[in-house]
């Protein structure tokens, strides 16, 4: 039925699931960029206590962020089920590391308060290319995990170096 066809290429050359990804990404990019809720997400990610002092209802916004994240995880589960056409609870085991790598490569800071949907999509694309390259080279799964970890480490080091350069230096007296 329709669920099995979500990841099958149609007349447009792209599967309906890819169009769903683009629609959700555009909706969340708009939410983060042009709504007060999006600014609240960034404010809480940057400094939760400061956001609370500014009058943002931190607990309510965090619950909403988790609800939206769970909704996106549900859509991803449907797309994964459509792609595999079977249910297996261990299918996405270890994806957490790949997701973190994609987000960090995409420019989000582990310190919080910065990042973009477009950057995350580019980071995910880079991770897919790395995973496919490792598979084509015949590397074992544990080696792919080491490569992913090395990519995360490199991205975090770049992020840290960038933040150290942006921090103002105290003037000598």
SSE order and pairing:
Elements: H1 16-34, H2 36-46, H3 48-53, H4 58-84, H5 95-105, H6 117-136, H7 141-166
Helix pairs in contact: 1-2, 2-4, 5-6, 5-7
What does this structure look like?
Helix content is about 70%, strand content about 0%. It is globular and about 70 Å long. By secondary structure, the protein is an all-alpha fold. It contains 7 helices and no strands.
Low-confidence stretches: none
Order of helices and strands: HHHHHHH
Largest sheet: none
Distance between the termini: 73 Å
Our Rg estimate from Cα atoms comes to 19 Å
Using DSSP, what is the number of strands? Answer: 0
Fraction in beta strands: under 5%
Individual helix count: 7
How would you describe the shape? globular
Measured as a percent range, the helix fraction is 55-70%
State mean pLDDT (0 to 100 scale): 86
List the keywords.
69% helix, mainly alpha, single chain, 173 residues
């Amino acid at each position: 039925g329709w669920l099995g066809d979500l990841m099958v290429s149609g007349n447009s050359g792209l599967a309906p699931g890819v169009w769903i990804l683009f629609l959700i990404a555009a909706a969340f990019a708009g939410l983060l960029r042009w709504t007060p809720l999006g600014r609240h997400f960034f404010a809480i990610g940057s400094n939760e206590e400061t956001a609370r002092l500014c009058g943002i209802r931190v607990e309510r916004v965090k619950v909403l962020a988790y609800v939206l994240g769970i909704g996106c995880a549900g859509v991803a589960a449907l797309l994964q089920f459509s792609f595999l056409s079977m249910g297996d609870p261990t299918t996405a085991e270890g994806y957490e590391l790949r997701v973190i790598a994609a987000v960090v490569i995409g420019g989000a800071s582990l310190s919080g308060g910065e990042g973009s949907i477009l950057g995350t999509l580019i980071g995910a694309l880079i991770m897919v290319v790395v995973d496919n390259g490792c598979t084509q080279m015949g590397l074992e799964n544990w080696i792919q995990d080491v490569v992913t970890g090395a990519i995360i480490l490199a991205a975090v080091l770049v992020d840290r170096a960038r933040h150290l350069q942006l921090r103002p230096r105290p003037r000598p007296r």
